[in-house]
Amino acid sequence: MKKVFDFTRNNANVVWGVVAVLIFAFLFIMGRKAGIAKAQQTKKIVPYPDGGKSLGDWPKGSNTAGKTVDEIATEWAKKVLDVTDGVWITSPIPQNDRRLNVFISLSALSNDQLTAVYNKYNLNHGNKFWGFTFVSMTEVIYNEVLAYGSDVQAKLVNRLKSLKLK
Amino acid sequence: MPSIIVSLFAKPLQGVLIVTAIMAAIYFVGREVGIAKIESEV
Questions:
Q1: ipTM
Q2: CA distance A6 to chain B (A)
Q3: With a threshold of 0.80, does the pTM exceed it?
């Protein structure tokens, strides 16, 4: 202990320097943390023009839950349906569709709605979330809506009619 | 204000301002680094 005191006494500038470096490092890390939080709050999520097809599937090892793509998509589809409460902006309508004659697409949601879904469920999978969404999720949501029954389907049809889509 | 008070605070305040400015600069550099990190992920 005496050696430590002696060193401190004899090398006061070095000790102060170390303290200063520690304080500055702390400030830098806190600033970086604040910057990350701020950027995450304001980040705009822009849908991919090709529907995310160029992103491909999940990279190996990123799906730690061990679920299939369809299983994850089904879970997310249910969550998204909970958020939007069946009120969808739908586009386009495939002419030859045999089931509901409506193609429900997340790509038709506004950026704010997508961001709300993203934030609410903390779907923190980076770009892959959106690529995955547009490739797989629309189809799953489609099936989910069919499973919801005629009341939701009627709501959707009414919504479509009010939008006067071709 | 009596000059004796000014003389008391002038020199120490300079030091405080300089140190504060350096600390703030490091904080905001870190903040920009954090923002750049997130934006580069998009």
A1: 0.73
A2: 28
A3: no
